[in-house]
Amino acid sequence: MGKIYSTTAPGLFSRGPFPIPPRRRIANQFHRLFSIKAGMRTVCVESPLEADAIYWAESDPNIIELCEQPLRIHMPIGNRPYFTFDISFKWASGNECFYEIKPESSMERLSNNKLIPKNWEIIEDICRDNAYTCQVLSDKRLNEKALEITNWRRLLPYARNAYESDDPWIAEMIIHVLKGIDKATINQVFTQMPQVSNEKIICFIAKLIHQGRMLANLN
């Protein structure tokens, strides 16, 4: 009989972010990208899908915080000595969810036609027993956010510039201008704020969209 592990044992979980081992950086498609919601720092991920998840989180004002390699289960699962989630999101509601990111092509199909990663039912049970919420984030679900992901690949450097700026009054000026113009275009904002460079205005518009304080047609 194999060893029996308690799913609620002390020390079963530890919090990250955990560094990605050098051998996995070489073997996998390693990416470094800056994230505002990870605390204004560079985040390391192991695949384009994980990078897409970061940009999706940046696009959604309801997601207020993210962490890569955020939670580790210290228990043999499958042929691995432990399991680490790919990413976590904390939502404005206060809820936190831990995600395993996988393409559907690598998942197993259950009898009810549901697709799950290998050993996922074990991981779900352990998390449920310890009041953690976990989900699978598939390439199909991320593809549904393709427009937001593409936009924030482009907009994130602008928003970063505004977050790091010492000119927060520009954001309030933009909001004031927008209140006075119905369905304003960016060129109208430029015209109303000639004392501020167009590039700086774009940076602060990106920040306002990032914070959910402003809506814009980014189609």
Label the overall shape. elongated
| Poorly predicted runs of 5 or more residues | none
- How far do the termini sit from each other? 59 Å
Give the class from helix and strand content and strand pairing. Answer: alpha+beta
Rounded average pLDDT: 91
Oligomeric assembly: single chain
Q: Outline the biggest β-sheet.
A: 4 strands, mixed
Which bin fits the share of residues in helices?
A: 25-40%
Helix/strand order: EHEEHEEEEEEEHEHHHHH
> Would you report the number of β strands?
11
Proportion in β-strands: 15-25%
Number of H/I helices? 8
Q: Whole-number radius of gyration?
A: 21 Å
Strand order of the largest sheet: 4-7-8-11
Briefly, what is this?
With 219 residues, the protein is α+β, with helices and mostly antiparallel strands. It has helices at residues 22-27, 48-59, 120-129, 139-143, 146-163, 169-179, 186-192, 198-211; strands at 13-15, 31-35, 41-45, 63-68, 71-73, 83-84, 87-91, 96-102, 108-109, 115-116, 134-138. The chain is 38% helix and 21% strand.
Question: Could you characterize what this model shows?
Answer:
There is one protein chain. This protein has 219 residues and is an alpha+beta fold. Helix content is 38%, strand content 21%. The strands form 4 sheets. A 4-stranded mixed sheet has the order 4-7-8-11. The longest helix is centred in the last third of the chain and has 18 residues, at 146-163.
Describe the SSE topology.
Layout: E1 13-15, H1 22-27, E2 31-35, E3 41-45, H2 48-59, E4 63-68, E5 71-73, E6 83-84, E7 87-91, E8 96-102, E9 108-109, E10 115-116, H3 120-129, E11 134-138, H4 139-143, H5 146-163, H6 169-179, H7 186-192, H8 198-211
Parallel strand pairs: 8-11
Antiparallel strand pairs: 1-5, 2-3, 4-7, 5-6, 7-8, 9-10
Helix pairs in contact: 2-5, 5-8
